[in-house]
Write a structure and sequence with these properties.
Layout: E1 2-4, H1 11-21, H2 25-36, E2 48-52, E3 55-69, E4 72-84, H3 93-107, E5 112-117, E6 128-129, E7 133-139, E8 151-155, H4 158-161, H5 166-174, E9 182-183, H6 193-196, E10 199-204, E11 210-219, E12 222-229, H7 237-250, E13 255-259, H8 266-271, E14 277-281, E15 287-292, H9 295-301, H10 303-311, E16 320-325, E17 330-336, E18 339-343, E19 351-353, H11 358-363, H12 368-371, E20 377-379, H13 382-389
Parallel strand pairs: 4-5, 12-13, 16-19
Antiparallel strand pairs: 1-2, 2-3, 3-4, 3-9, 5-15, 6-15, 7-13, 7-14, 8-10, 10-11, 11-12, 16-17, 17-18, 19-20
């Protein structure tokens, strides 16, 4: 058997195997052909397959995107369609192809990796959970009774996935520093049945200007809200909730559910002040997980953001250093007059021992002091420095960008 990167001519073979491995064959095959693999940021160089007599029998896909960490941008690889032909299972092929993919991402210059995994599996490849699953449910009748003063207009979903114009401008403005979100596009076509039920509704003022939007889909008696935009004063959270209420009514939905938004998102903060049910599901291993592919590159890409955090703290005129030990590398940061830079010099006395938890530290899953209970260790003044440089970020990735 041979492990290597797939070739574009093998697209149909990848889609065929995915259809056999996931859900209804024709539905998932159409999903892969309709935008998930074809017409996406699927990375043919970093993905890996195992071939037996020239035929794909195991596969791990990588979707390249830039993930925001405040002002920083990490070259990230989303992991998807991890699969092995049923006739080849229980032979360790999945472990081989996953290990090869992690090496392939590092060789291709990736900083970080994200996946949405089954329980108790992906930790063996250096992944740990980076945010919990969160779902908020509220009765439509319990939503705040704010009059909708803007007009709802249905638009093509492509305007928010890859388009240019007002809707995409709003997305980029609202999420400019929201850790975990993707710089779009990740997907460039939406012919897949998995996307077609989602509806983009623009909020338009009396001058004809688009000032906000809601992406939602009808899910039985529920209106599932996947994404909102328009947090600035010309729209605001009140009008977004009023639009959600109007969409619930027009779709005969008695309940609203908000999916995959962090607890720090303004929509979640506004709604959980009223009557609602909030479900938060944490996994020791599973769900939204991340891994540091190259710790030095991650911290290098975050220098501007780390400097901003330092300059706005009581450490802004202190000269010191902090070493961060990941899974297989140690990187030292130099702090001087509010500036933070990656060093080539030897390790500092202020040493943070993270292991796989470097993935949680970088995206601010929790405060460093909370990570102590999960195995993080600090020497010297490392913990005090880490609290300044790596505060909680409430990371999230919108469902439309997931892989």
């Amino acid at each position: 058997m041979e492990i290597r990167a797939p070739e574009m001519r093998q697209l149909d073979e990848i889609c065929d195997l995915a259809g056999k491995c996931f859900g209804q064959y024709f539905d998932f095959y159409a999903h892969c052909q309709g935008g998930y693999v074809r017409g996406s940021s699927y990375d043919w160089e970093a993905s890996r397959v195992i071939l037996d007599a020239g035929r794909i029998v195991s596969h791990v896909g990588v979707w390249q995107y830039r993930m925001r960490v405040g002002q920083g941008r990490l070259k990230s690889g989303g992991i998807g369609i991890v699969m092995t032909d049923g006739r080849y299972r229980k032979q360790g092929l999945n472990t081989q192809v996953m290990n090869a993919t992690m090496t392939g991402m590092r060789d291709a210059g990736y900083d970080y990796s994200v996946l949405f995994g089954v329980k108790d599996y992906y930790h063996r490849f250096g992944f740990c959970q980076i945010w919990p699953w969160a779902k908020l449910r509220a009765e439509a009748a319990d939503l705040p009774e704010t009059p909708l003063t803007l007009t709802l207009q249905e638009r093509p979903l492509g305007e928010i996935l890859w388009g240019s114009g007002a809707v995409m401008d709003i997305y980029n403005r609202d999420n400019a520093t929201r850790t975990g979100t993707a710089e779009r596009p990740v997907y460039t076509i939406n012919e897949s049945p998995h996307w077609k039920d989602n509806r983009l509704h623009a909020l338009v003022n009396t001058s004809g200007q688009t000032v906000g939007y809601v992406v939602a889909t009808k899910d039985g008696a529920d209106l599932a809200v996947l994404e909102v935009g328009g947090l600035a004063d010309d729209c605001g959270i009140g009008q977004l909730i009023a639009a959600i209420a109007a969409l619930a009514k027009s779709n005969a939905c008695t309940r609203v559910q908000v999916i995959n938004h962090s607890l720090g998102h303004p929509l979640m903060q506004a709604l959980h002040c009223g009557n609602c049910k909030l479900e938060i599901e944490h996994f020791r291993s599973g769900g939204p997980m991340g891994a540091t592919v190259n710790l030095r590159q991650c911290l290098g890409a975050m220098q501007e953001e780390l400097s901003l955090r330092c300059a706005n703290s009581a450490w802004n005129d202190v000269s010191t250093s902090l070493s961060i030990q990941g899974q297989d590398e140690t990187v030292t940061l130099q702090l001087s007059n509010g500036q933070v830079r990656v060093m080539d010099e030897a390790a500092s006395a202020n040493r943070l021992i993270c292991g796989v938890l470097s993935a949680r530290l970088i995206v601010g899953s929790e405060s460093p002091s909370d990570l102590l209970y999960q195995g993080l260790k600090g020497e010297g003044g490392a913990l005090a420095l880490a609290e300044v440089l790596f505060p909680p970020q409430c990371p999230m990735l919108h469902r439309l960008d997931a892989f």
